[in-house]
Amino acid sequence: MKHFVLVFGLMMFAVPALGQTTLVKTTGDELAEAKSSIEKGNAQWSEGWFKRDPKMVSLIFAEDGVQLTLSGKVVKGRQQIMERLKTAMDGAGPGVKVTVTTVNVWVDGDIAYEAGKYKYEYVEKGKPGVDEGRYVTAWKKQKDGSWKLAMDMAVPPDK
Fold this sequence. Notes:
The chain has helices spanning 2-18, 28-51, 54-58, 78-90, and strands at 61-68, 74-76, 97-108, 111-124, 127-141, 147-155. It is α+β, with helices and mostly antiparallel strands. The longest helix is centred in the N-terminal third of the chain and has 24 residues, at 28-51. It starts with a helix and ends with a strand.
């Protein structure tokens, strides 16, 4: 019985310790810097779509950035992302209006995680269309101090 009590007592202290995570304290300046960079990147995204400029949009991504599509495809690298953007832009008429709304940002070291909402308003084959939903991104701080998209993922809609 003493053995059981001793083992049980040790488990009471050891098991919770195994599940603990280290909290990274982010300064207000780091968070503000990340949010500002993300805001600029999102504005560039919207402007690039309006101008039908896939290169402008793809330059937001890190060289090794990825896009995770709703269809399950993983698009790897800035060049492939630019080609995918070009195809998408060619399918829409001019003047696509994109609204990107950041809902939350978390910073952990050199990674900023963003959750938000998007809305695309466009004309396709003469008919107006709207595509809206939610997204999650990961922005990585680069060696030069800039922030680039490392991962962009549209969140599937609720069923």
